[in-house]
Amino acid sequence: MAYAAVSVVQTGSSEPYSAVDAWKHRRAYDFALWITQTAQREPNLAFSDSHAAAVTRTEVNAVCNLAAMDATYRQGKRFKTWKTFGDSRVRPSHKAVDGQRMPLDMPFTVGGYEMMFPNDSSLGAPAGEVVNCRCVLEFDDGKVLTNSREHGLRRTREKLQNDASNNWNGANPTPHTVEELRELNQYAEERGIKLYNRIAFDGDINLIKAQIDTMAKIRADFGHTDFIRLGWKRMNPGDFGETSANHQQIWINALALRNREITELNLSVDNFLAANQATGIVAHEMGHVISGKLKKGITGLDIYKQTVYNVSGKIVSDDEAVTMLLTNVSVYSGSSYFKNNDRRCFDELIPEMLSVHYTEPNEYSSEFVKLLKGALE
To answer: Is there a contact between 352 and 329 (Cβ–Cβ < 8 Å)?
Structure first.
């Protein structure tokens, strides 16, 4: 077994070197070295049958997970999701990461320790997090977070499958007179926004006006002179809004415009989205509009790393910046996918930062917006 593991390190891979390859080789080497050193140090070491079985099962599961990650990477999939058995035997620390989704080459944090996959001890996880773990990984290609046509404020498909999604009970429609709707259209046009009435508006007039005011403020702050359309339509329950690929049309879920209290309750149920105020929806979507004006070669992650340096004086790596986003902003802000040549794209970073800044601004969001303004064409 030791020779087989070491031979992997020596032969390597004919494919381009990657973070996953590097990690795979290090894991194989560490495992082989552990076997060799243990045998040399304690030649007469005896394990009980149950202990031997637990060690064997744990290492076999680790190797199987490692092989699955390697095969997945070569198939072009770039994300992994931690899954438990969902029963009473699951460790609390593993239950806490159930359903968590990460880029393939980044570790999960389980019980305070980093683990690339279930049963992984190579990064320092103790036996209590590893031995007899039955958790598994599921993999995807990154398309669940975005697509080539539209971007928007939504929960991932995994979250829609695992959770009850948003609860819109009580978000009842409100009929409006022709005069009320005419006045609403005029209110929007005076602020450089054209309402797109695919279906008749049946929400809260004050709430849609607040969205219009937020759009107008962001347009003014960024000197955005293009006319923008704002509309509403039926969407999946877990979605709040979306922006067209040409950055000229914003849609909001019609349900999210009916009752502010219900909308904000849905927004704030977890840390998946940065917005916890209703106007954060349109602020997020305006982030996609503004992103379309970025100078070539500049990314939202570049701007965020500079923000961290300007505010705290710290120079952070890409991975460290992503960890800060996941911890301090939202899960969605740190979500990414891979484009040509394996380039990681964070399409939701700028929108989420604008969502924070135009609802509950802080030192980081203010600096980020200042830098973003200087990065536009």
So the answer is: yes
pLDDT, average across residues 222-238 = 88
Of the ranges 100-114, 155-169, 235-249, 252-266, the best mean pLDDT one:
252-266
CA dihedral 358→363→368→370, nearest 10 degrees, is 80
Give the 3-state secondary structure of the chain. CHHHHHHHHHHCCCCCCCHHHHHHHHHHHHHHHHHHHHHHHCCCCCCCHHHHHHHHHHHHHHHHHHHHHHHHHHCCCCEEEEECCCCCCCCHHHHCCCCCEEECCCCEEECCEEECCCCCCCCCCCHHHHCCCCCEEEEECCCCCCCCCEECCECCHHHHHHCCCCCCCCCCCCCCCHHHHHHHHHHHHCCCEEEECCCCCCCCHHHHHHHHHHHHHHHHHCCCCCCEEEEEECCCCCECEEEECCCCEEEEEHHHHCCHHHHHHHHCCCCCCCCCCCHHHHHHHHHHHHHCCECCCCCHHHHHHHHHHHHHCCCCCHHHHHHHHHHHCCCHHHCCEECHHHCEECCCHHHHHHHHHCCCCCHHHHHHHHHHHHCEC
Q: What is the mean pLDDT of the chain?
A: 79
CATH classification for the domain delimited by 150-271+280-291, as one of 3.30.2010, 2.40.50, 3.90.550, 3.40.1350: 3.30.2010
**Looking at per-residue confidence, does 147 or 202 come out higher?**
202
Rounded distance, CA 205 to CA 259, Å?
10
Q: Is 160's pLDDT higher than 90?
A: no
pLDDT over 70 (residue 172): yes
Q: Where are the domains of the chain?
A: 2-140, 150-271+280-291, 300-374
- pLDDT (tens digit per residue) in 52-61: 555 555 666 6
